[in-house]
Amino acid sequence: RLILLSMFLATLISATAIAFVGTISFIGLIAPHMVRKVVGCDYRFLLPGSALLGSALMLFADLLSRTVRTPAVLPIGAITSFLGAPLFLYLILKKGKRR
Questions:
Q1: What is the pLDDT of residues 15-35, one digit of tens each?
Q2: Model's pTM, two decimal places?
Q3: What's the CA angle centered on 83, arms 82 and 87, to 5 degrees?
Q4: CA distance 35 to 51
């Protein structure tokens, strides 16, 4: 019960933070998971790698949002959601297979 309650509270806190700050901060949740796959759990490399990848992803999302429909600009949050939703779905499904 404690694990289930902890997971629920962590999800609620993350959802609340994203609701207040916006979907652009979704990159702050995506980048560390992507970098961890490459460099492992050593925080000496994980923190700077997450910052670099997060900024590169935001630059890519901004570039894509401005060039997909040239006269109009798509919301960056839509682009980051297309990247983040499949990644989190993959992480959830992978965790379920380990149990």
A1: 887 777 766 667 777 888 889
A2: 0.66
A3: 115
A4: 10
